[in-house]
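Q: We require from you a single protein entry containing the residue sequence and its fold in token form, and nothing else.
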Amino acid sequence: MIMTSDAYELIDDWESIWQGYFLGEHDEALLDCVERLDRARSARPYDPDVTAFYTLGLVWTHGHAMHDAEPEVARRVVAALTAVASDPALAQAACDHACHPCDEDLYTHLESFEMLLSLLAGSSDYTWEDMDTKGGDPDPGSGWRCPRNVAGFARSAVGEIERYRK
């Protein structure tokens, strides 16, 4: 099941922003993602995959917020990502993972975000095993979808944006 009818359009837009060839309005695309993330976080019933989808969309496009976004847009991106990163429900989520992908350098994973987001969207030619870069993880999807991993990526993106926006 696809979580939103325009998931693949969003993924294409976010990839274009990340790659630097998006022809649309970059700030508008980021603000749309912020608003969707806010709605996902307050939705009942809560769906962690939907929250992860929009959070990781902002993480993937954080380079625009770092360098080119209007100050208010960058501030809203940072606020949305900080809300995810500091959410007590995520920090207290049950987790049996010894480590998470977010424990590594953020930039080593951005190349795989198209695959990751398509898997989160619910209909992909990829499998979670394609995300197992180290091999041997019996359930690689659980580590990528883990709320602590999503929060960790949000923290990393906030740190990068704040470092360059000062």
